[in-house]
Specification:
The protein has one domain. Helix content is 65%, strand content 11%. The chain is built from 3 helices and 2 strands; from the N terminus they run ααββα. The chain has helices at 3-20, 28-44, 60-71, and strands at 46-49, 52-55. α1 (3-20) crosses α2 (28-44) and α1 packs across α3 (60-71). It is globular.
């Protein structure tokens, strides 16, 4: 998968988790900029070992949810 596609999916997942938790700052543009920043930070933690991707040593879904909730 292209790097840009991964980043877009990560932004979408962060936004989805934030919405599910009813997160909002009152400034949607600020929130979106924050989600993009978080997605870039999260993707920097991506590691590939033996063909398997991990983030912070965890599978993607576990890691993205924990990361998002910690950083909202």
């Amino acid at each position: 998968m292209p790097k840009s596609q991964r980043l877009l999916e990560t932004v979408a997942d962060i936004a989805y988790i934030a919405g599910a938790k009813r997160f909002h700052s009152g400034d949607s543009r600020q929130d979106i900029a924050h989600f993009i920043q978080l997605a870039r930070q999260f993707e920097k933690a991506r590691k590939v070992k033996d063909g398997n991707e991990t983030y912070f040593g965890k599978d993607y879904m576990t890691a993205i949810e924990e990361f998002t909730l910690k950083n909202l």
